[in-house]
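Let us work through a complete example step by step.
Step 1: write down the sequence.
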Amino acid sequence: MKRASITNETIRPQEAAHFGKLAADWWDPKGSSAMLHKLNPVRLGFIREAIDLHWAGDIRSVKPLAGKSALDVGCGAGLLAEPLARLGANVTGVDAAAENIAAARLHAEGSSLNIAYRHGELGALGLGQFDLITCMEVLEHVADKPAFVAQLAAHLAPGGLMILSTPNRTLKSRLLMVGAAEAVGAVPKGTHHWEDFVTPDELEELLSGAGMVMGEPRGIAFSASKGLHLSGDLALNYIVTARTA
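Step 2: predict the structure and record it as tokens.
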């Protein structure tokens, strides 16, 4: 397996500390990570469709990732890594917070899932390359975005698929995802810093600089009738695929 070793530091210690404090509560659907529990099925729907399209797999298969390796970057306590394992992948999860990795390992063990969890800077771990890379709601938290995206690209195997999601930097996201969401306790205070949000055009430029081609973004929107759902509205949050150019 080819090694991937871009070691620019991208972790913000204060961000890692913030999320590490939430580790014990991560798997509580009514706790501080409740919004992630609501968001996860939407992301999984997009991921499953992207997997089937990319590898032209059987849409009826319950394990479309069988025989493939997957890397979940910014894995938290494993909320996405575990479903990827159930889809058949050999999963590795990486997170900046040691507390999250400890919680992830404990939960995976209780779920009888064999997931390799690692703590630290992605580019310094020497993990090699993966068929699938997922990076959900992480880009807005890193210190050096071009270096981080380069690290992601270096870990993608030839012919692989990358999937990223991140909040969009719009007036709507500032009002709802930062102001309103934190005010009512939907997300813990200090989780989001609006100035670090990334627009789709900026993400496309970051990916292009790392030798990647971005797919058409899909919005993750909210309505009273549908809740969180995939949408053409990119104003709050969006999810995209990327491939090596």
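Step 3: interpret the result. The domain at 13-165+202-214 is CATH 3.40.50.150 (Rossmann fold).
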